[in-house]
Amino acid sequence: MSTAPAPAPSGRGAPGVAATTLPRRVRIGYGLGSVATGSFGTVPGLLLLPFLTDRIGVAAGLAGLIVLIPKAWDVVLNPIAGRISDRFTHPAGRRRPFLLRAGGTLAVLFVLLFAGPTAPTWLGATWVALVFVACATAYAFFQVPYVAMPAELTDEPAERTRLMTWRVAFLALAILVSGGLSPAIRDGLGSEWGYRGVGVFVGLLILFGTAAAWRGTAGAPLRDVPAPAAGLAEQLRLVAGSRDFRLLLVTFVLQAVAIGCMLAGVDYVARWVLGRTGAATLLFVCFVAPALVVTPLWQVVGARIGKKAGYAASSLLLLLGSVGIYLARSRSLTEVLLAVAVVGIGYAGAQMFPLAMLPDVAAVDAARTGQNRVGVFTGVWTGAETLGLALGPGLYALVLAWGGYASSTAGQASQAPRTLDAIHLGFSVIPAALIALSVLVLARYRLDEDAVRAAARRGEGGQ
Question: What is the pTM (predicted TM-score) of this model?
Answer without folding.
Answer: 0.76
